[in-house]
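Quick board copy: two proteins, each given as sequence then tokens.
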Amino acid sequence: MTPFDSAEFRRVLGHYPTGVTVVTGAAGDGPAGLAIGSFGSVSLEPPLVMFCPGKSSNSWPVIEASGSFCVNVLAEDQAAVSSLFAGRDPDKFAGISWGTRVTGSPVIEGCLAWIDCTIETVHEGGDHWIVVGRVADLGVGRPDSGPLIFFKGGYSAVGPVED
């Protein structure tokens, strides 16, 4: 038994800032997407990334069935986009401009960067899945913008540190 509860776990880990992403996929009924804070690079050779959707997500099974996904790294002025994709609205793409690249997964217009992937493997990780994707294409959308950050339960922005 752990000496702490889930609220304490969340509070303490909230002191570690995370970048904010929206993972998207192309579905037969239209695009699907969800906000993700647990994202990172795995390998340079081959180029692999990972993210962790919750097992209770309605969007992840739709994206998984497509066999591919795009990680949209949100820019500092896209908190509203993150909030939209963190919710359960069935039409998250209403009012969102987007295009596609190699896999056909949506790339959100105005995002800081995007990483287009095919699903390599999916592992269980407690109440989440650990999804590993092979990068098929990637790019920077807004090189002069900063990233959207989630820290202590809220959105924040960060810029380069001067030496």
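And the next:
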Amino acid sequence: MIKIVIDAFGGDNAPEEIVKGAVLAINKLKDVHVVLSGDETKINEVLGSIKYNSEQLSILDAKDVITNNESPTEAIRFKKDSSLVKALDLCKSDDQVVGIISAGSTGAVLTGGFMKIGRIKGIFRPALCPVLPTVKGGCASICDCGANMDCEPKYLEQFAVMGSCYLNTLGNKKPRVALLNVGTEDHKGDTRTKETFELLKVNRHVNFVGNMEARDLLSGDYDLIVTDGFAGNVLLKSTEGAIKSLLKVMKAEIKSSLLSKIGAVFMGKTFKNIKKKFDYSIYGGAVLLGCKKLVVKAHGSSKATSICACVEQVYNMSKGKLIDKISKNLASVGIGENE
């Protein structure tokens, strides 16, 4: 039985959607046990109207909640009765728990991963790695997208190794790894980028295909984009913003005339397919790669289907022995030692 703990009170739609998502997951995966961390009374109120196997679900009572407005470090240190801290503590102490999921404060989840769970031996910095849909129907990941603002070339090399291992667990046996840069030519970039390029070029655990420009993120030509957390976060949010803006413009144009509205009726199925293609919720959350246990940061607005996808994500990473694979690959090329 694979045991996963979920912060039931993290996110905009907690606890209802989080609890419902957990139930969706255990109804789908019969060898998963979910521990819901949060106010037991409120969790039971949601569970009261849902059918589920009680042997696959338990509750860790926690009366407090960490909000987005709090200092992540102080919250992790002092809010010991919060749903997130209790979930992290259980994840660390219980050998049967393979990972944790939270849709709560990103800063608190990252800080908790660093402080409570700890790093795999040899990891310089854990990195946040989300999965995005591409125009070709596949997916692309960014590593890092916000956990590390300042990175050295050796950190970026580790991100490439960890990200490749992660995509292996999703079924991509030879992910195409690119380095985010201002041009695709080998000589482009600053000193750090050029040094990283040389490291990736010779790393046998990385299928390095060269530099990538930001505009090609969703092209489908790359599977893993390696960068520092600052640039990665800008890349991620600017891409999300561009897609949302484009959809708003399309909606406004459709409403602008009777002819456009009539045309939209015939294009209804096409619009639905486009929306479905770029639905991030089916891919789960962003994984904090490099921790001793599996840590998944779900989107703050996650609903039940997205939480269910996150559980499947942890399940597949556990089955694929992601943490062992990362450790083995780093050791075999001799990169990384705890600082």
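Board note added afterward: The first strand starts at residue 2 and ends at 7.
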